[in-house]
Design brief:
Layout: H1 2-10, H2 17-45, E1 47-52, E2 57-61, E3 86-90, H3 96-107, E4 119-121, H4 126-132, E5 134-135, H5 137-142, H6 147-157, E6 164-170, E7 175-181, E8 187-191
Parallel strand pairs: 1-3, 2-6
Antiparallel strand pairs: 1-2, 3-4, 5-6, 6-7, 7-8
Helix pairs in contact: 1-2
């Protein structure tokens, strides 16, 4: 929008052609720089992982992952995929010192799910995911005002509510609920509902 407005402001038929061409080239360069900056910002803000963190899922964006920790990414996990978010989990702490260090880092803004040194394949955490998840059938009891929304999300999964489990999924500014298959821990749906 700024490009056309600036063009209208600088365009004057009385200007010599070489001056007008220079002015229009500057406007074009400004627009290209703004477009490049916008695309770079979107690229950094893209979600790269959905990480299970002990009692919830967290959406991890590329900008959340500390660059100095990228070398600690375990084999078999792509640190910053460009094809869409992948499912992974946070491993159990090796000892109390690692627990304290990770907790202090989380207080400083680096969430557990954003730390490559704590990542593991999602399949390795399936039993822990199912142990932490709550029965999806309890959602209607806890949130009767949202019963229609919950039942619609459950029906979209093609499973009964007894065959589903739920956990909160935390994003940057919102919290939703993820629906999981009760036997495989596979993510099968989402509900725009804060179930904490």
């Amino acid at each position: 929008m700024l490009g056309p407005l600036i063009t209208l402001a600088i365009f004057n038929r009385a200007k010599p052609w070489c001056v007008l061409r220079r002015d229009l080239a500057v406007v074009g360069l400004i627009q290209l720089a703004a477009l490049g900056y916008g695309m770079w910002t979107v690229f950094l803000a893209r979600p790269v992982h959905l990480a299970f963190e002990f009692d919830r899922f967290r959406v991890i964006h590329a900008v959340d992952v500390p660059g100095e920790m990228l070398d600690l990414t375990p084999a078999g996990i792509e640190a910053l995929p460009v094809t869409g978010p992948t499912l992974l989990s946070v491993r159990l702490f090796k000892d109390e010192n690692e627990n304290i260090e990770a907790t202090l880092a989380a207080l400083g803004g680096v969430h557990l799910g954003a730390r490559p040194d704590l990542w593991q394949l999602y399949a390795d955490a399936r039993p822990r995911v199912l142990a932490a998840a709550r029965p999806a059938s309890k959602l209607v009891e806890r949130f009767p005002d949202n019963a229609e929304q919950i039942n619609e999300a459950v029906s979209l999964t093609g499973r009964s509510s007894d065959a589903l489990r739920s956990l909160p999924v935390v994003g940057r500014s919102t919290t939703w609920t993820v629906l999981l298959d009760a036997s495989t821990a596979e993510v099968v749906g989402y509900i725009a509902l804060d179930s904490f």
